[in-house]
Records
---
Amino acid sequence: MKIIDLRSDTVTLPTPAMREAIHHAELGDDVYGEDPTTNHLQQVAAERFAKEAALLVPSGTMGNLICLLSHCARGDEVILGDQSHMFLNEAGGMSALGGIFPHIIPNQADGTMRLEDIEAAIRGDNVHFPRTRLICLENTHNRCNGSPLSSGYTESVATLARRHGLKVHLDGARIFNAAVALGVDVKQLTHSVDSLIFCLSKGLSAPVGSMVCGSREFIAEALRMRKVLGGGMRQTGIFAAAGTLALDQMVDRLADDHANARRLAEGIAQIPGLSIDPARIQTNILFFDLVTDRITAEEFITRLARKGIKCLHTGPSRFRIVTHYGVESEDIATTVSCMRQVMEE
Ligand SMILES: Cc1ncc(COP(=O)(O)O)c(C=O)c1O
């Protein structure tokens, strides 16, 4: 039985071409800046985003934390969404390690924060207040059904930030999904932000790694913060080789994942007892709800797993599915049919 693992796009395995590139990668000590494969990846990433420089880091979580530590001092405040990965799923690193104060405002269903809410959250110069330094966006927005943020929206936030002397950081873990879904060059979604991260190890299928991109000065500080966090590695070309192929070969195919997610959403919408609005699904992430008491959420997930389908239980009666490389078009029909069987059993 084929296991169809829809819990996350982080379960993707490296492609045969990546395994080959890993085998032949030219290596050196990256802490001395001497790993040629890593240096090449960093140059390719910086060029792809038209930023001055880029830095390879072990994970998206460390990349976001490095950016926060590079932008902010202890006691500074960051404005971010209440549904953001940085607030909900990064172990409070900004406070635990950086003494940074999160100021949470509501994410709308499409992953945006209202401009008026952001502006109202910015503190004045007053000894009683923390200093607002940074606004963080997430594109695509994981918990908001993988919604892509438009370049227009990102630019409006950046304009607002500049008016108040603030910086903007983008958690672009899945920024290429946004670019493919919106049909724009990825630079259009990132040119107005001061720093960004993106992940090589999610939909792009590399085994390890995320990239931080920004100005030369910012990346020099990020390099220091990576060292502070113990993220200085050695022969990183082993996985940077796969990262370069991820950028070269794995971006355009994300459109297949989006089409599969949409088909899945349409299928789920037809199953009595399950609820989803397929119109919301624009990329590779979808959430759906169990809306019957004939079966518990635990029973649903367990019975589905027995049929070889894995999805993530994220709330009392809420589930997440993420499509990715390795999930084929026929797996979508199998998944919908297994869900129907589970609901009819
Ligand atoms: C939006 C978003 N940002 C950041 C991360 C963190 O990436 P990592 O798992 O590589 O730490 C994730 C991981 O799923 C994510 O979904």
Note: The pocket of pyridoxal-5'-phosphate is lined by residues 59-61, 85, 138, 142, 171, 173, 199, 201, 210 (CB under 6 Å).
---
Amino acid sequence: MDLSCRYLGLELCNPLVASASPIAGGLDGIVRLAHAGLAAVVLPSLFEEEVRREAAQDAAAWAAGRDSFAESLSYFPHVDDLEPHPRRYLSLVERAAAAVRVPVIASLNCVTATGWASYANALEQAGAAAIELNIYDLPADPAISGREVEDQHIEIVAAVKAAVGIPVAVKLSPYYSSLGEMALRFDRAGADGLVLFNRFLHPDIDPERLAVTTGFGLSSPADGRLPRAWISRLAGRVSASLAASGGVDDAADVAAYLLAGADVVMTTSALLRHHPEHAFVLLGGLDDWLARKGFTSLAEARGLLASSGWAGAAEDRAGYVGSVRAADRGEWLR
Ligand SMILES: Cc1cc2nc3c(=O)[nH]c(=O)nc-3n(C[C@H](O)[C@H](O)[C@H](O)COP(=O)(O)O)c2cc1C
């Protein structure tokens, strides 16, 4: 079965994409993902504060060296060369783009307005096929209004779009108060793709160790329900491509996302839980499912069960009330 498709205007050989994760943090992992059949690889995010921290450490080392050895003035780099610059990440992008035939998508997470635009530009120069914006921003300050936060996010997309010529995807938070409106705003701001959803770090409390714990944890298939519902609502309503991210473990999860209207389906937890070659299982299973259901192409299945419109909210509500009543009758036990 021909599984080829398009994402962000890029031609992909199938709809399975490796989402940002440590697997793609080195060249070996990226090559392994490409060999396992992933049609594109998103690199783990480049974090601006990490680059700044490294630059500060380099500057401190430079200053210490200069004080110790007068002659070192001649061979230590000039301090201007120590401006924050994501050298290691850019080198990974460059080497990955040369090593694999699938598109290498850089992921960017910045903290300053200039950082977003200038790092995006550097990633394009390094050979990234596209950039995914990981706008990881959970404002804890109650003085900031939702609209202010949303406007800042739209400005980030507009600034990056103005700075680069390659496609730009936005990895969305599920926590906007009106997610549909924000998706449309990102679309109008020029986002070439929307990734639903970003996974946030939720610190927790371990009562035995009396300690605060951190960590992402891996997802489970139930985590696919929320992104699937939103993809289903957005399919056909935005010009941006739609990428599903969350809760894929087997081929049925991939198929469900495609039926909802996803252009591509991303996976991280499954590749970490099993191994990158689990992609063969997902793709083989997708192929079998399409054939078993009588589809002759991926396009025939895509969006078949997308929501019929924004009015879907009324159906959701009816479904919710029905489910609550069913639970009241104890039907959830069966
Ligand atoms: C260990 C780990 C590291 C991750 N690192 C990043 C990252 O650097 N940038 C990012 O945007 N998402 C990151 N993610 C989120 C994944 O890309 C993905 O969106 C999320 O795990 C949901 O997909 P899944 O259910 O297939 O795991 C990470 C997830 C995990 C589990």
Note: The first strand starts at residue 5 and ends at 7.
